[in-house]
Design brief:
Layout: H1 9-12, H2 14-23, H3 36-44, H4 64-74, E1 79-84, H5 90-102, E2 108-110, E3 122-124, H6 126-132, E4 139-141, H7 143-150, E5 153-157, H8 164-176, E6 178-180, E7 189-191, E8 197-203, H9 214-218, E9 220-225, H10 231-248, H11 257-275, H12 290-307, H13 314-325, H14 331-351, H15 354-369
Parallel strand pairs: 1-8, 1-9, 2-5, 5-8
Antiparallel strand pairs: 3-4, 6-7
Helix pairs in contact: 3-4, 3-5, 10-11, 10-12, 12-13, 13-15, 14-15
């Protein structure tokens, strides 16, 4: 794992998954590696009431009912569509589900405007076709077809960004559970084995890009993942991801709880301002998601480690926040400047502490970018 920039969940948590398999005596649907209860436990973490000999860490932070509905869907013959705003953890949940159920989360198709039907069915090795003709040996199966043949989970990221032709091809796979290969005379149908399913993700902000047809919607169970607004839950997510970052970079740097509180409060303030804004010009372009919060903190930590005093400061955090969220100029800078003068400045006078450094760091960053 040390030579991977980012190990997939089944590699990262291999020892934990092995142990869960060894103690799992629950009923398993199809070819699942873990029972539904153990899949849920792997994702949400163990509790004392579970009676396990070891603790299983929580990896996804959200409502238990979302995870349970996702697991139940995959145990049926329907596809699962995780939908929500950017940065709500849809892809991470999809990866954890595939890792726990199939021990393979890498059978992924990325939906874009350039995604074609070949990406979800098959293509051909041209040199082999020229040399020996079309055959199963010269065919290049897509990740979805590979998942069908193995009876495992395939993933489709950003479904609404793919064109209607690709979505129509997916309807056939979800309905018929096989793919025809008309170019071949024999062995020209690939049937899905029990256990095959598709987890797709879609951003709710992408409405109007390529809307899903009614036929495709019927083949999916929808699980809507809301933006995390509970400060305690959000703090747990940010802390969890930050600890991973520090371990990955071998950085010994403390994140003061007071600074984490400043970050959480700032995002809560900006979300409230965005919700009450009269128009798009008065809203930040950023979705202000938990993922973006993590990105702000990651940027501040790395900057402090490499260019600062190897200690995270309120000034560095403010500079990272402004630099990350000021995407449009001058609109976003004007919104942030208004927030700094109207909210951060009075708060620094009332509470002092980290807010004073946060005020100064933000002012400097806004002045630099203006």
């Amino acid at each position: 794992m040390s030579d991977m920039l980012r190990a997939p969940a089944e590699v990262k948590y291999a020892e934990e998954l092995d142990w869960l398999e060894s103690v799992d005596d629950g009923p398993k649907p199809f070819s699942w590696r873990l029972s539904p209860k153990m899949v849920r436990l792997f994702i949400l973490g163990s509790e004392r009431a579970d009676g396990l000999e070891r603790e299983i860490a929580q990896k996804w932070f959200g409502d238990r009912s979302f995870v349970e509905r996702a697991i139940v869907t995959l145990a049926s013959d329907r596809g699962l569509l995780l939908i929500g705003d950017p940065g709500t953890g849809k892809s991470w949940l999809a990866e954890l589900l595939a890792a726990a159920i199939s021990r393979n989360s890498t059978l992924v198709v990325q939906g874009t405007a350039g995604t074609t039907e070949d990406h979800i069915k098959y293509s051909w090795n041209v040199s082999m076709v020229i040399a020996k003709g079309q055959s199963r040996a010269s065919m290049i199966p897509s990740p979805i077809m590979t998942a069908m043949e193995g009876g495992v989970i395939g993933r489709f990221e950003e479904l609404t960004r793919s064109t209607s032709d690709v979505q129509d091809a997916l309807i056939s796979i979800l309905s018929e559970k096989y793919v025809s290969i008309p170019e071949l005379d024999d062995d020209n149908i690939v049937f899905a084995k029990p256990g095959f399913s598709i987890i797709a993700t879609a951003n709710s902000r992408d409405r109007g890009v390529n809307d899903l047809s009614s036929a495709l919607k019927r083949r999916f169970n929808f699980v809507r993942i809301p933006v995390v607004t509970n400060k305690k839950s959000e703090a747990e997510i940010v802390r969890f991801r930050t600890e991973e970052l520090l371990r990955r970079h071998n950085i010994e740097l403390e994140v003061p709880p007071t600074l984490l509180d400043v970050l959480l409060q700032s995002f809560a303030d900006l979300r409230a301002a965005s919700a009450s804004a009269a128009g798009d010009d008065e809203r930040l372009e950023s979705a202000l998601s938990t993922a973006e919060q993590i990105g702000v903190l990651e940027d501040a930590i790395l900057h402090s480690n490499f260019f600062g005093a190897r200690a995270l400061t309120a000034e560095a955090l403010a500079g990272s926040l402004v630099g990350s969220l000021a995407r449009r100029s001058p609109e976003d800078l004007a919104i942030l400047n208004k927030y700094w003068h109207g909210v951060v400045e009075p708060r620094s006078r009332e509470q002092s502490g980290e807010w004073s450094g946060f005020l100064e760091g933000g002012r400097q960053a806004i002045a630099t970018l203006s």
